[in-house]
Amino acid sequence: MANRIGRPKAALYARIADGADADAVFADAQVAAKELAADLAQGVDARLARRIADMPELEHHRIMSPPTSPPPFDLAWQVVATEGELSAGMTDAVAGMAKALSGRINDVEVFAGREVAITAGDGPVYIVMPLRRLAALDRAGFMTMWFDGHAQLGEEVEGVRYRQNHVDVDATTRLGTRVGSSAEPLDGLAESYFDTLDDAVAIMSQTSVTVDAIVDERRFIDHARSRFALYETQWRRPA
What we know:
Number of strands: 8
Largest sheet: 8 strands, antiparallel, barrel
Radius of gyration: 17 Å
Strand content: 25-35%
Mean pLDDT: 95
């Protein structure tokens, strides 16, 4: 398994508000992303992504689609540093995107914490799975099952580029207050990266995912309060 300490990360996830022109929102989001990234220090990766709506249904879609689970986020904006600690500039970039799109996004949630690469690799297409734990578990119990147990299953999925994002509850709460989000901090975020949508469908359709991973997830993830979607990178400034 990769470095357990991980990299500092801040992110914004949101749905496009009813009546807003999604193409116009993303056009403005790209402008804002370029401006906000210009103020970030060197060594910080900035990425804006849009949910892929027209795609084959995966097993995770079948168990985590409305009305069973909350609707997926349409937009993902994340900044990740190569090392060090979460900086004010990174959280400013997240708050700045929320401000730039104010009135046209809703159901906003944020993340502040650390990104841990369970397996190596990146790609322009990726899954974002915001997680909430089962009510019977506390955060420590959730993390034990997710990071110390489930991560090993992730390592065994052929071709996957899997990351876990571990929440700093205090930092996430402060960032949520800045952007006007009243959502309780997530318990975690799972991500997997791919070169193409076809690769994503093929890898996520393996039995090691559709059966083994999901059976294990049911031990600690409340799928009815979690979300799942695939995203395509719209703009990126690599670290």
